[in-house]
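Annex B, item 7. Sequence and structure tokens for protein A, then protein B.
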Amino acid sequence: MKITPEIAQKEIYKRKDEIVDWLKLLVRFPSENCFPIGYEGEAQKFIEKECSSIGLKTDMFSPEDVSGVKDNIYWLNGRDYSNNRKNVVAKWEGIKKGKSLLLSGHVDVAPFGPGSWKECEPYDPILKDGKLYGRGTADMKGGLAAAYWAIKILKELGFTPQGDIFFESVVDEEFAGGNGTLAARLKGYNADFAILMEPTKMEICPACLGAFLGDLVLRGKTGGMPFMGHSIPNPIDGAAKVVVLFKEWEKYWRSINKHELFNKPGKELNVVLWDIDSKIPGEFKQMGNPLITKVSWIVWGYPGISEDYFYKEFRSFWEDKFKNDEVLKLFEFEIIPTFHYVRPWESDLNNIGIKKLIEVYKNCTKIMPSIGGASLSCDMAIYGDQGRMPVVILGPTGDNIHGSDEWVLLDDIYSLIIMFMVFINEWCCLTI
């Protein structure tokens, strides 16, 4: 059976309401990642049940139950999986003569941020002007829905793949995670080609950014008030100067790093400051100068940028500032890496799977796809490095990711289903 874009489009048109209802149902599960714990359990039970109902062979497992996973360089300690946080991998077995495919995504979502949603409540999704609003619609339950429905419709049409097809929903990707993805790779759920459905605005992305995470800690003298007529250096004042200087660092970091897949506007290397704190665990905080002030940061980097290179440049920048700045020279400082380095990745554009996906995209949309680096950090390196798979990211248009009123464009979900159906037909029928 040959699946053409026209056949796929016709089948999707008949099921549009059902597809939207299914995605709404998935979004209603508050599968938040609230590091170190997460609440993906009920959503994963739903996905496993849905996959089983269409005849897929499923496997549910906790990341920490996979042999050797905690000894791997990608494993991130300090995560709690006691709350029924399990991966779901569903397999559609081929007849062993065609190429295999992995369609992968994560089910955990960022916490919703109370009190700032206007279009809807985070887990009560609403459809408006072709956009589905709700936490996780774009990141990345919309992509999961597209992959699932491509497989479901092909099943209903009686299609039989030559090669194995894997559909997976992993846990614990947010908060610089990756343990769920790592466990699936080490358990052997790998393929000849992988597509990760993170939101890319329908751009085919053979590369993604990496992320460095850490704290810059300023240390002064605890307590103290200016009662005796002289001021005492306050590390909060120093932190205020650090916040301003991070913009200077961002400008410098961009100036010394370039990458051909990230040369479009909006793909520059960014810095995010996400927390400022002046408490020490267990400390009784009196009114007065704190002993420390901690500024938590994320800095993104292109493929090819190593940890050693980043920290050499980063430490040199701040050493100069704390030595010469009139405010900062009053404090000691320390740079403390946190979580782990979320590694960037770049797949070979000449890979046959990428070329086939570009061809399918053109045939399905009648336009040449945009090809570039994804301006986000994710688990892509784990698929490529640990799974030994050529991998691309391709997902829908959305916005307000990790923020209020997150949304995904439904027309992109339908387009992705068409592409995945046609790609499965053509890729999984190529002989090995």
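Protein B:
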Amino acid sequence: MDPQGLWAGIDDAIFTIGGAVIGVVGQDLSDLFSGKLSGWEDYVGSALGGAAFGETLLYTGPIAAGAVGSAVANGTKQVLKNITGKQCGYDITSFGVDTILGAATGLIPGMKIQVITAWKLTII
């Protein structure tokens, strides 16, 4: 809580940067489990999608954040792959499915970690 607004922008930076890092780590894990290395377009898309997820989560809830993050990630990947010639056209089905699945993952209840979920920042 920051009733005087003294920390404006810091929370946005934390959620955006944290989301981007988590997006890249998620792409790394996906590559590890699939056994193939994705292109830089996938990593940029994952970072931007993660950043969009983090920023949206700060102001809405997990369902909207999941939808926005997945939409940004998929859209960015497709645009970059079209620019680099690795893809021809846009796959609207892939975009829609990813967006819906992203929103659906927001329905999954999160883990409660006593120290983290109970911690609140109060600036007096």
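Comment on protein B: The chain has one domain: 10-118.
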